[in-house]
Amino acid sequence: MMDLEGHNILVTGASKGIGKSIALHLLEANARVGVHFNRSAQEANKIKRDYPLSETFQADLSNADEVEILFKRAIKQLGKLDTIVLNAGVFLPQSTAGTTKEWLDTWRKTMAINLESVGLITKLGIEHFKSTGGGRFIYIGSRAAFRGETEEYLAYAASKGGLTSLARTVARSFGKYNIKSFVIAPGFTRTEMAEEAISKLGEEKILNEMALKELTKPEDIAPMVVLMSSGQMDHATGSTVDFNAGSYIR
Ligand SMILES: NC(=O)c1ccc[n+]([C@@H]2O[C@H](COP(=O)([O-])OP(=O)(O)OC[C@H]3O[C@@H](n4cnc5c(N)ncnc54)[C@H](OP(=O)(O)O)[C@@H]3O)[C@@H](O)[C@H]2O)c1
Fold first, then answer.
1. CATH number at residue 52
2. In this structure, is residue 250 part of a structural domain?
3. Could you tell me the distance, in angstroms and rounded to a whole number, from the CA of residue 111 to the centre of ligand 1?
């Protein structure tokens, strides 16, 4: 078991799904974890009750002011951050057959949460890491950035493409400041986010597309974040690790 004692880590969207599993794995490895949530206060508070090393932070990441306040509060309460996990995201369908207004509303909401908040946390994180001697960013991207998505998810795929390019540029530009940057790119993972798509497409179709016998679960992904946070993967900075059960091999 890897020991992250003394590491302070902020995880966005840690109240549910992949982010929650990441937070729990980091806490089990003795890290101090900032559990960010937006609407799922009950779930976040349960983590706080179960793990004294955790602190909870509420913020709606579609609002840039709240993003900045979240970052300042996290540093105030956790102190120096060692790793920032940018996991929060939405998977909103939009139809090209709908009105321009509907389409643009969904596009903007997706970009605000999945890309703009990620860009802003990166900017604030770089400032912080430069002043503390370095740190790590771990971005939760998607298979969609590489394979492309189905037609209702143009905005989602574009947001994850942006996130991936951002993460790679951070790795190339700030390595000399001891800042590392990684991407994890999941395929279908059994969470609330994917549940609707899984039931719409049919589980059998999804299982047929992949090499492994069962759908990926959040716990299949989370140990990679523990390893990335430990420093043992630092020379893989800039890389993307695929977690798609062999459904799309690049
Ligand atoms: N599940 C998949 O198949 C899959 C595949 C590829 C990539 N991913 C990526 O993995 C990440 C996690 O997805 P998931 O499946 O675990 O999703 P999930 O179960 O729906 O959880 C999403 C998390 O993001 C937070 N969030 C959503 N909107 C927010 C907002 N406006 N402000 C702040 N936080 C917000 C939620 O917070 P609250 O509940 O507290 O509001 C929740 O903690 C996402 O970036 C997603 O794109 C997922």
1. 3.40.50.720
2. no
3. 14
Nearest ligand 1 atom to the CA of 61 is 32
Ligand 1, CB within 6 Å, residue ranges = 13, 15-19, 37-40, 60-62, 87-91, 113, 140, 142, 186, 188-189, 191-194
C-alpha of residue 51 to centroid of ligand 1, in Å: 21
Give the total number of structural domains in the chain: 1
Sign of CA dihedral 231, 233, 238, 239: negative
Global pTM? 0.98
In a domain, 248, yes or no: no
**Residue 199, Cβ density class (10 Å: 0-12 exposed, 13-18 middle, ≥19 buried):** exposed
Residue 180 domain-assigned?
yes
Residue pair 191/222 in contact (Cβ under 8 Å)? The answer is no
From 12, 15, 18, 58, give the residue whose CB has the most ligand 1 atoms within 8 Å, as the site to mutate.
18
* Rounded average pLDDT per 10-residue block, the chain, 250 residues: 95 98 98 98 98 98 98 98 98 95 98 98 99 98 97 97 99 98 98 88 91 97 98 98 97
The boundaries of the domain holding residue 24 are: 8-243
